[in-house]
Protein backbone atom coordinates (compact mmCIF):
# COMPACT_ATOMS: atom_id res chain seq x y z
CA UNK A 1 0.00 0.00 0.00
CA UNK A 2 1.36 3.38 -1.04
CA UNK A 3 -1.26 5.89 -0.05
CA UNK A 4 -3.30 5.69 3.15
CA UNK A 5 -6.36 7.75 3.97
CA UNK A 6 -7.96 8.36 7.33
CA UNK A 7 -11.48 9.65 6.67
CA UNK A 8 -13.59 11.11 9.46
CA UNK A 9 -16.85 9.74 8.08
CA UNK A 10 -18.04 7.01 5.78
CA UNK A 11 -19.48 9.05 2.91
CA UNK A 12 -16.36 11.21 2.92
CA UNK A 13 -14.33 8.01 2.71
CA UNK A 14 -16.15 6.90 -0.44
CA UNK A 15 -15.79 10.39 -1.84
CA UNK A 16 -11.99 10.31 -1.55
CA UNK A 17 -11.77 6.63 -2.52
CA UNK A 18 -13.59 7.63 -5.71
CA UNK A 19 -11.08 10.43 -6.39
CA UNK A 20 -8.06 8.21 -5.80
CA UNK A 21 -9.45 5.29 -7.82
CA UNK A 22 -10.05 7.61 -10.79
CA UNK A 23 -6.95 9.78 -10.48
CA UNK A 24 -6.69 12.54 -13.04
CA UNK A 25 -8.40 10.55 -15.78
CA UNK A 26 -5.43 10.34 -18.15
CA UNK A 27 -2.85 8.44 -16.16
CA UNK A 28 -5.54 6.64 -14.14
CA UNK A 29 -5.81 6.12 -10.42
CA UNK A 30 -4.64 3.65 -7.81
CA UNK A 31 -6.10 0.26 -6.93
CA UNK A 32 -8.24 1.43 -4.02
CA UNK A 33 -10.11 -0.28 -1.20
CA UNK A 34 -12.39 1.38 1.32
CA UNK A 35 -12.39 -0.21 4.76
CA UNK A 36 -15.33 0.19 7.12
CA UNK A 37 -13.41 0.89 10.32
CA UNK A 38 -9.83 -0.17 11.06
CA UNK A 39 -9.26 -3.68 9.71
CA UNK A 40 -7.99 -6.39 12.05
CA UNK A 41 -6.17 -8.07 9.16
CA UNK A 42 -3.51 -7.06 6.67
CA UNK A 43 -4.49 -5.54 3.33
CA UNK A 44 -4.39 -7.54 0.13
CA UNK A 45 -0.95 -6.82 -1.37
CA UNK A 46 -2.50 -5.62 -4.65
CA UNK A 47 -4.19 -2.66 -2.92
CA UNK A 48 -2.28 0.56 -3.63
CA UNK A 49 -4.50 2.97 -1.69
CA UNK A 50 -6.38 2.10 1.47
CA UNK A 51 -9.13 4.37 2.75
CA UNK A 52 -10.16 3.83 6.36
CA UNK A 53 -13.66 5.05 7.18
CA UNK A 54 -14.03 6.27 10.74
CA UNK A 55 -17.07 7.76 12.43
CA UNK A 56 -14.94 10.36 14.16
CA UNK A 57 -16.34 13.67 12.94
CA UNK A 58 -18.74 14.26 15.79
CA UNK A 59 -17.34 12.11 18.62
CA UNK A 60 -15.43 13.62 21.59
CA UNK A 61 -12.10 14.91 20.32
CA UNK A 62 -9.97 12.56 22.46
CA UNK A 63 -11.77 9.62 20.84
CA UNK A 64 -11.29 11.09 17.35
CA UNK A 65 -7.56 11.52 17.99
CA UNK A 66 -7.16 8.01 19.42
CA UNK A 67 -9.05 6.39 16.52
CA UNK A 68 -7.12 8.38 13.91
CA UNK A 69 -3.76 7.46 15.43
CA UNK A 70 -4.77 3.80 15.48
CA UNK A 71 -5.74 4.08 11.81
CA UNK A 72 -2.39 5.75 11.07
CA UNK A 73 -0.50 2.88 12.68
CA UNK A 74 -2.40 0.30 10.63
CA UNK A 75 -1.75 2.21 7.40
CA UNK A 76 1.96 2.57 8.22
CA UNK A 77 2.13 -1.14 8.97
CA UNK A 78 0.76 -1.76 5.44
CA UNK A 79 3.68 0.24 4.01
CA UNK A 80 1.97 3.57 3.23
CA UNK A 81 4.40 6.30 2.19
CA UNK A 82 1.87 9.08 2.37
CA UNK A 83 -1.16 9.73 4.56
CA UNK A 84 -4.19 11.87 3.82
CA UNK A 85 -6.50 13.00 6.58
CA UNK A 86 -9.88 13.47 4.85
CA UNK A 87 -12.52 15.71 6.38
CA UNK A 88 -15.53 17.41 4.91
CA UNK A 89 -15.29 19.88 2.05
CA UNK A 90 -17.48 22.10 4.21
CA UNK A 91 -14.98 21.70 7.08
CA UNK A 92 -17.67 20.22 9.38
CA UNK A 93 -16.39 20.68 12.91
CA UNK A 94 -17.09 22.69 16.06
CA UNK A 95 -14.81 25.27 17.70
CA UNK A 96 -13.50 22.38 19.87
CA UNK A 97 -12.55 20.13 16.96
CA UNK A 98 -12.19 17.53 15.66
CA UNK A 99 -10.27 18.54 12.53
CA UNK A 100 -7.54 20.57 14.27
CA UNK A 101 -6.75 18.15 17.09
CA UNK A 102 -6.64 15.15 14.73
CA UNK A 103 -4.48 16.97 12.16
CA UNK A 104 -2.06 18.07 14.88
CA UNK A 105 -1.87 14.59 16.40
CA UNK A 106 -1.12 13.03 12.99
CA UNK A 107 1.45 15.74 12.18
CA UNK A 108 3.16 15.22 15.54
CA UNK A 109 3.22 11.43 15.11
CA UNK A 110 4.72 11.81 11.62
CA UNK A 111 7.05 14.63 12.74
CA UNK A 112 5.99 17.12 10.06
CA UNK A 113 5.24 20.86 9.80
CA UNK A 114 3.82 22.89 6.93
CA UNK A 115 0.92 20.46 6.49
CA UNK A 116 -1.62 21.43 3.83
CA UNK A 117 -5.19 22.14 4.99
CA UNK A 118 -7.35 22.28 1.88
CA UNK A 119 -11.06 21.39 2.00
CA UNK A 120 -11.65 22.57 -1.60
CA UNK A 121 -13.74 20.37 -3.94
CA UNK A 122 -14.43 22.57 -6.97
CA UNK A 123 -16.56 19.97 -8.79
CA UNK A 124 -18.99 20.18 -5.88
CA UNK A 125 -18.71 23.98 -5.71
CA UNK A 126 -16.34 24.15 -2.70
CA UNK A 127 -13.51 26.62 -3.25
CA UNK A 128 -11.11 28.44 -0.94
CA UNK A 129 -9.94 31.96 -1.55
CA UNK A 130 -7.85 33.96 0.95
CA UNK A 131 -8.58 31.22 3.45
CA UNK A 132 -12.36 31.64 3.11
CA UNK A 133 -14.45 28.66 2.12
CA UNK A 134 -17.21 29.13 -0.44
CA UNK A 135 -20.05 26.77 -1.38
CA UNK A 136 -20.78 27.80 -4.96
CA UNK A 137 -21.32 31.58 -4.75
CA UNK A 138 -21.95 31.73 -1.00
CA UNK A 139 -19.65 31.95 1.96
CA UNK A 140 -19.77 28.68 3.92
CA UNK A 141 -21.48 30.47 6.80
CA UNK A 142 -24.31 31.62 4.50
CA UNK A 143 -24.62 28.41 2.51
CA UNK A 144 -27.06 26.57 4.78
CA UNK A 145 -24.18 24.92 6.65
CA UNK A 146 -24.75 27.40 9.50
CA UNK A 147 -27.84 25.28 10.29
CA UNK A 148 -26.14 21.87 10.30
CA UNK A 149 -27.66 19.71 13.08
CA UNK A 150 -24.30 18.58 14.52
CA UNK A 151 -21.59 20.94 13.25
CA UNK A 152 -23.09 24.33 12.41
CA UNK A 153 -20.50 26.24 10.40
CA UNK A 154 -20.93 29.87 11.36
CA UNK A 155 -17.58 31.21 10.10
CA UNK A 156 -16.22 30.82 6.56
CA UNK A 157 -12.70 31.90 7.56
CA UNK A 158 -11.03 28.49 7.80
CA UNK A 159 -7.84 29.91 9.30
CA UNK A 160 -9.82 31.55 12.11
CA UNK A 161 -12.08 28.50 12.69
CA UNK A 162 -9.12 26.11 12.75
CA UNK A 163 -7.23 28.46 15.11
CA UNK A 164 -9.97 27.87 17.68
CA UNK A 165 -9.29 24.13 17.55
CA UNK A 166 -5.49 23.98 17.70
CA UNK A 167 -2.50 25.06 19.71
CA UNK A 168 -0.31 27.58 17.86
CA UNK A 169 -0.98 29.74 14.81
CA UNK A 170 -2.41 28.54 11.52
CA UNK A 171 -0.74 29.64 8.28
CA UNK A 172 -2.25 30.70 4.96
CA UNK A 173 -0.88 30.33 1.45
CA UNK A 174 -2.98 32.29 -0.97
CA UNK A 175 -3.94 31.53 -4.55
CA UNK A 176 -1.22 33.82 -5.93
CA UNK A 177 1.46 31.53 -4.57
CA UNK A 178 -0.36 28.35 -5.60
CA UNK A 179 -0.56 29.66 -9.18
CA UNK A 180 3.20 30.20 -9.25
CA UNK A 181 3.43 26.41 -9.40
CA UNK A 182 4.43 23.35 -7.42
CA UNK A 183 8.00 24.45 -6.64
CA UNK A 184 6.87 27.84 -5.28
CA UNK A 185 4.17 26.19 -3.19
CA UNK A 186 6.55 23.53 -1.85
CA UNK A 187 8.98 26.24 -0.84
CA UNK A 188 6.26 28.36 0.79
CA UNK A 189 5.08 25.37 2.81
CA UNK A 190 8.62 24.56 3.91
CA UNK A 191 9.26 28.17 4.93
CA UNK A 192 5.96 28.78 6.70
CA UNK A 193 7.13 27.28 9.97
CA UNK A 194 3.60 26.56 11.24
CA UNK A 195 2.29 23.06 11.69
CA UNK A 196 -0.94 23.59 9.72
CA UNK A 197 -1.28 25.83 6.68
CA UNK A 198 -4.54 26.61 4.88
CA UNK A 199 -3.94 26.56 1.12
CA UNK A 200 -6.26 28.28 -1.37
CA UNK A 201 -7.66 26.36 -4.35
CA UNK A 202 -10.48 27.37 -6.67
CA UNK A 203 -10.24 24.86 -9.49
CA UNK A 204 -8.86 21.42 -10.27
CA UNK A 205 -5.67 22.84 -11.77
CA UNK A 206 -4.87 24.37 -8.34
CA UNK A 207 -5.43 20.97 -6.77
CA UNK A 208 -3.11 19.39 -9.33
CA UNK A 209 -0.40 21.90 -8.31
CA UNK A 210 -0.99 21.11 -4.64
CA UNK A 211 -0.74 17.41 -5.48
CA UNK A 212 2.62 17.89 -7.24
CA UNK A 213 3.94 20.10 -4.44
CA UNK A 214 3.02 17.40 -1.94
CA UNK A 215 4.65 14.49 -3.80
CA UNK A 216 7.02 13.87 -0.90
CA UNK A 217 4.77 15.15 1.92
CA UNK A 218 4.15 12.51 4.58
CA UNK A 219 0.80 14.10 5.44
CA UNK A 220 -1.82 16.04 3.49
CA UNK A 221 -5.20 17.08 4.90
CA UNK A 222 -8.36 18.20 3.18
CA UNK A 223 -11.46 17.26 1.28
CA UNK A 224 -11.29 14.70 -1.50
CA UNK A 225 -9.88 17.40 -3.81
CA UNK A 226 -6.67 17.43 -1.79
CA UNK A 227 -5.98 13.92 -3.11
CA UNK A 228 -6.74 14.72 -6.75
CA UNK A 229 -3.12 15.07 -7.79
CA UNK A 230 -1.61 12.41 -5.54
CA UNK A 231 -2.10 9.20 -7.59
CA UNK A 232 -0.22 10.77 -10.52
CA UNK A 233 2.89 11.15 -8.32
CA UNK A 234 3.00 7.42 -7.60
CA UNK A 235 2.35 6.61 -11.25
CA UNK A 236 4.98 9.08 -12.54
CA UNK A 237 7.60 7.65 -10.18
CA UNK A 238 6.83 4.12 -11.37
CA UNK A 239 5.57 2.94 -7.98
CA UNK A 240 2.05 2.37 -9.35
CA UNK A 241 0.92 1.40 -12.84
CA UNK A 242 -2.20 3.53 -13.24
CA UNK A 243 -5.49 1.77 -12.85
CA UNK A 244 -8.54 2.51 -15.00
CA UNK A 245 -11.20 0.63 -13.06
CA UNK A 246 -12.96 -2.60 -13.82
CA UNK A 247 -16.41 -3.36 -15.19
CA UNK A 248 -19.41 -3.42 -12.92
CA UNK A 249 -22.31 -5.45 -14.18
CA UNK A 250 -24.91 -4.22 -11.68
CA UNK A 251 -26.78 -6.12 -9.01
CA UNK A 252 -30.15 -7.78 -9.23
CA UNK A 253 -32.51 -7.73 -6.24
CA UNK A 254 -34.51 -5.48 -3.94
CA UNK A 255 -33.40 -1.89 -3.47
CA UNK A 256 -33.91 0.57 -0.64
CA UNK A 257 -33.10 4.20 -0.02
CA UNK A 258 -32.61 5.55 3.51
CA UNK A 259 -32.07 9.24 4.20
CA UNK A 260 -31.09 10.69 7.59
CA UNK A 261 -29.45 13.75 6.12
CA UNK A 262 -31.20 17.06 6.72
CA UNK A 263 -29.10 19.11 4.30
CA UNK A 264 -30.80 21.37 1.78
CA UNK A 265 -29.57 19.15 -1.06
CA UNK A 266 -30.98 15.96 0.46
CA UNK A 267 -34.30 17.60 1.27
CA UNK A 268 -34.56 18.76 -2.35
CA UNK A 269 -33.75 15.22 -3.53
CA UNK A 270 -36.39 13.76 -1.19
CA UNK A 271 -39.04 16.18 -2.50
CA UNK A 272 -38.09 15.39 -6.07
CA UNK A 273 -38.15 11.63 -5.49
CA UNK A 274 -41.54 11.82 -3.73
CA UNK A 275 -43.12 13.06 -6.97
CA UNK A 276 -42.73 9.72 -8.70
CA UNK A 277 -41.77 7.09 -6.12
CA UNK A 278 -43.06 5.60 -2.87
CA UNK A 279 -41.71 7.50 0.16
CA UNK A 280 -42.11 7.01 3.90
CA UNK A 281 -41.47 10.01 6.17
CA UNK A 282 -40.18 8.98 9.60
CA UNK A 283 -41.53 11.29 12.31
CA UNK A 284 -38.94 11.67 15.09
CA UNK A 285 -41.65 11.79 17.77
CA UNK A 286 -42.85 8.35 16.74
CA UNK A 287 -39.30 7.00 16.71
CA UNK A 288 -38.71 8.31 20.22
CA UNK A 289 -41.94 6.78 21.54
CA UNK A 290 -41.31 3.50 19.73
CA UNK A 291 -44.44 3.79 17.57
CA UNK A 292 -42.39 3.43 14.42
CA UNK A 293 -39.45 1.09 14.14
CA UNK A 294 -37.72 -1.50 11.99
CA UNK A 295 -40.83 -3.60 11.18
CA UNK A 296 -42.70 -0.61 9.70
CA UNK A 297 -39.70 0.55 7.66
CA UNK A 298 -38.87 -2.92 6.44
CA UNK A 299 -42.38 -3.79 5.31
CA UNK A 300 -42.62 -0.46 3.46
CA UNK A 301 -39.30 -1.08 1.69
CA UNK A 302 -40.04 -4.67 0.73
CA UNK A 303 -43.61 -3.91 -0.33
CA UNK A 304 -42.35 -1.30 -2.79
CA UNK A 305 -39.35 -3.22 -4.03
CA UNK A 306 -38.59 -2.38 -7.67
CA UNK A 307 -39.93 1.18 -7.33
CA UNK A 308 -36.94 2.76 -5.54
CA UNK A 309 -38.69 3.20 -2.14
CA UNK A 310 -37.29 5.89 0.15
CA UNK A 311 -37.65 6.13 3.94
CA UNK A 312 -36.44 9.42 5.36
CA UNK A 313 -36.18 11.41 8.56
CA UNK A 314 -34.85 14.46 6.69
CA UNK A 315 -36.43 17.57 8.13
CA UNK A 316 -36.12 21.35 8.06
CA UNK A 317 -33.70 23.16 10.41
CA UNK A 318 -36.70 24.32 12.51
CA UNK A 319 -38.02 20.76 12.86
CA UNK A 320 -34.55 19.46 13.71
CA UNK A 321 -34.09 22.15 16.37
CA UNK A 322 -37.49 21.41 17.89
CA UNK A 323 -36.74 17.66 18.06
CA UNK A 324 -33.34 18.30 19.59
CA UNK A 325 -34.83 20.60 22.23
CA UNK A 326 -37.51 18.08 23.07
CA UNK A 327 -35.33 14.97 23.35
CA UNK A 328 -31.70 16.09 23.37
CA UNK A 329 -29.48 16.17 20.28
CA UNK A 330 -27.60 12.96 20.97
CA UNK A 331 -30.69 11.02 21.97
CA UNK A 332 -32.33 11.89 18.66
CA UNK A 333 -29.32 11.09 16.51
CA UNK A 334 -28.60 7.85 18.43
CA UNK A 335 -32.20 6.72 18.00
CA UNK A 336 -32.22 7.53 14.29
CA UNK A 337 -28.79 5.97 13.74
CA UNK A 338 -30.00 2.79 15.43
CA UNK A 339 -33.21 2.72 13.41
CA UNK A 340 -31.48 3.16 10.06
CA UNK A 341 -28.71 0.70 10.94
CA UNK A 342 -31.09 -2.04 12.09
CA UNK A 343 -33.40 -1.49 9.13
CA UNK A 344 -30.50 -1.78 6.69
CA UNK A 345 -29.33 -4.94 8.43
CA UNK A 346 -32.79 -6.50 8.30
CA UNK A 347 -33.16 -5.43 4.66
CA UNK A 348 -29.95 -7.19 3.57
CA UNK A 349 -30.82 -10.21 5.73
CA UNK A 350 -34.13 -10.44 3.83
CA UNK A 351 -32.33 -10.51 0.47
CA UNK A 352 -31.89 -6.78 -0.20
CA UNK A 353 -29.12 -6.20 -2.74
CA UNK A 354 -29.01 -2.47 -3.50
CA UNK A 355 -28.86 0.13 -0.76
CA UNK A 356 -28.58 3.90 -1.00
CA UNK A 357 -27.96 5.89 2.19
CA UNK A 358 -27.91 9.68 2.47
CA UNK A 359 -25.94 11.45 5.19
CA UNK A 360 -22.47 10.91 6.61
CA UNK A 361 -23.45 10.03 10.19
CA UNK A 362 -26.35 7.96 8.96
CA UNK A 363 -24.15 6.10 6.46
CA UNK A 364 -21.56 5.50 9.18
CA UNK A 365 -24.14 3.93 11.44
CA UNK A 366 -25.47 1.77 8.60
CA UNK A 367 -22.10 0.69 7.21
CA UNK A 368 -20.75 -0.22 10.65
CA UNK A 369 -23.81 -2.34 11.38
CA UNK A 370 -23.66 -4.18 8.06
CA UNK A 371 -20.22 -5.73 8.48
CA UNK A 372 -19.43 -4.99 4.83
CA UNK A 373 -15.74 -5.76 5.07
CA UNK A 374 -13.71 -3.85 2.53
CA UNK A 375 -15.52 -2.50 -0.50
CA UNK A 376 -14.33 -2.01 -4.07
CA UNK A 377 -14.97 1.29 -5.81
CA UNK A 378 -17.29 1.10 -8.81
CA UNK A 379 -18.56 3.77 -11.25
CA UNK A 380 -19.35 7.29 -10.10
CA UNK A 381 -23.04 8.17 -9.71
CA UNK A 382 -22.59 11.92 -9.18
CA UNK A 383 -19.40 13.81 -8.18
CA UNK A 384 -18.10 12.39 -4.92
CA UNK A 385 -20.47 9.41 -4.80
CA UNK A 386 -19.24 6.11 -6.24
CA UNK A 387 -20.90 2.73 -6.27
CA UNK A 388 -19.45 0.51 -3.53
CA UNK A 389 -19.28 -3.24 -4.04
CA UNK A 390 -19.27 -5.48 -0.99
CA UNK A 391 -18.25 -9.03 -1.76
CA UNK A 392 -18.76 -10.06 1.86
CA UNK A 393 -22.46 -9.06 1.89
CA UNK A 394 -23.04 -9.68 -1.83
CA UNK A 395 -24.56 -6.20 -2.06
CA UNK A 396 -23.91 -2.87 -3.74
CA UNK A 397 -24.28 0.46 -2.05
CA UNK A 398 -24.05 4.19 -2.45
CA UNK A 399 -23.26 6.35 0.57
CA UNK A 400 -24.16 9.93 -0.28
CA UNK A 401 -22.74 12.88 1.59
CA UNK A 402 -25.56 15.16 2.67
CA UNK A 403 -24.82 17.94 0.24
CA UNK A 404 -23.85 15.87 -2.78
CA UNK A 405 -25.82 14.74 -5.79
CA UNK A 406 -28.16 16.20 -8.38
CA UNK A 407 -31.88 16.53 -7.71
CA UNK A 408 -32.71 13.14 -9.22
CA UNK A 409 -29.90 11.44 -7.30
CA UNK A 410 -32.02 8.76 -5.63
CA UNK A 411 -33.60 7.47 -8.84
CA UNK A 412 -30.28 7.63 -10.66
CA UNK A 413 -28.46 5.80 -7.86
CA UNK A 414 -31.07 3.02 -7.65
CA UNK A 415 -30.89 2.57 -11.42
CA UNK A 416 -27.11 2.66 -11.62
CA UNK A 417 -26.75 0.11 -8.84
CA UNK A 418 -28.73 -2.19 -11.12
CA UNK A 419 -27.09 -1.52 -14.45
CA UNK A 420 -24.11 0.80 -14.16
CA UNK A 421 -21.80 -1.56 -16.01
CA UNK A 422 -23.73 -1.45 -19.25
N1 LIG B 1 -35.87 14.79 11.79
C1 LIG B 1 -34.72 14.92 12.46
N2 LIG B 1 -34.67 15.63 13.61
C2 LIG B 1 -33.51 15.77 14.28
N3 LIG B 1 -32.34 15.25 13.88
C3 LIG B 1 -32.34 14.53 12.75
C4 LIG B 1 -33.53 14.32 11.99
N4 LIG B 1 -33.22 13.56 10.92
C5 LIG B 1 -31.91 13.31 11.00
N5 LIG B 1 -31.37 13.88 12.10
C6 LIG B 1 -29.99 13.82 12.52
O1 LIG B 1 -29.26 14.74 11.73
C7 LIG B 1 -27.95 14.23 11.49
C8 LIG B 1 -27.70 14.22 10.00
O2 LIG B 1 -26.35 13.94 9.81
P1 LIG B 1 -25.81 13.15 8.58
O3 LIG B 1 -24.32 13.21 8.72
O4 LIG B 1 -26.41 11.80 8.46
O5 LIG B 1 -26.30 14.00 7.36
P2 LIG B 1 -25.55 15.26 6.74
O6 LIG B 1 -24.93 16.03 7.85
O7 LIG B 1 -26.52 15.95 5.86
O8 LIG B 1 -24.49 14.56 5.83
P3 LIG B 1 -22.93 14.84 5.71
O9 LIG B 1 -22.33 14.62 7.07
O10 LIG B 1 -22.52 13.81 4.73
O11 LIG B 1 -22.81 16.23 5.22
C9 LIG B 1 -27.90 12.83 12.08
O12 LIG B 1 -27.29 12.88 13.36
C10 LIG B 1 -29.37 12.47 12.21
O13 LIG B 1 -29.60 11.54 13.24
O1 LIG C 1 -16.05 16.35 1.52
C1 LIG C 1 -17.27 16.24 1.47
O2 LIG C 1 -18.06 17.19 1.30
C2 LIG C 1 -17.87 14.87 1.71
O3 LIG C 1 -17.00 13.88 1.32
C3 LIG C 1 -18.15 14.72 3.15
O4 LIG C 1 -17.28 14.38 3.90
C4 LIG C 1 -19.49 15.10 3.63
O5 LIG C 1 -19.83 14.35 4.75
UniProtKB/TrEMBL annotation:
It comes from Paracoccus onubensis. It is an enzyme of class 2 (transferase). Keywords: ATP-binding, Carbohydrate metabolism, Kinase, Nucleotide-binding, Transferase. Catalyzes the ATP-dependent phosphorylation of 3-oxo-tetronate to 3-oxo-tetronate 4-phosphate. GO terms for molecular function: ATP binding; kinase activity. InterPro entries: 4-carb_acid_sugar_kinase_N, 4-carb_acid_sugar_kinase_N_sf, NBD_C, NBD_C_sf, OtnK. Its EC number is 2.7.1.217. It catalyses: 3-dehydro-D-erythronate + ATP = 3-dehydro-4-O-phospho-D-erythronate + ADP + H(+); 3-dehydro-L-erythronate + ATP = 3-dehydro-4-O-phospho-L-erythronate + ADP + H(+). Residues 3-228 form the Four-carbon acid sugar kinase N-terminal domain. This is 3-oxo-tetronate kinase. Residues 256-410 form the Four-carbon acid sugar kinase nucleotide binding domain. Belongs to the four-carbon acid sugar kinase family. Gene3D superfamilies: Four-carbon acid sugar kinase, nucleotide binding domain, Putative sugar-binding, N-terminal domain. NCBIfam families: OxoTetrKin.
Amino acid sequence: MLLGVIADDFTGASDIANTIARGNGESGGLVTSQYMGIPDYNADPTVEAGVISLKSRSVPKADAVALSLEALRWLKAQGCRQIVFKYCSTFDSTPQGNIGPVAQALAAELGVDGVVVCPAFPKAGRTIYQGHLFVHDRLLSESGMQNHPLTPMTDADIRRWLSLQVTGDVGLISLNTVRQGADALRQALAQDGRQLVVVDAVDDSDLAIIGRACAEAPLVTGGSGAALGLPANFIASGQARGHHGGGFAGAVGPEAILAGSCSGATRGQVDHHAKGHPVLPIPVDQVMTGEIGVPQLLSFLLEHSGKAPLAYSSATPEEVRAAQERYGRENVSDALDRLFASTAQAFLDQGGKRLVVAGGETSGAVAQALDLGEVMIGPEIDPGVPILISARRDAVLALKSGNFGQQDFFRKAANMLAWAGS
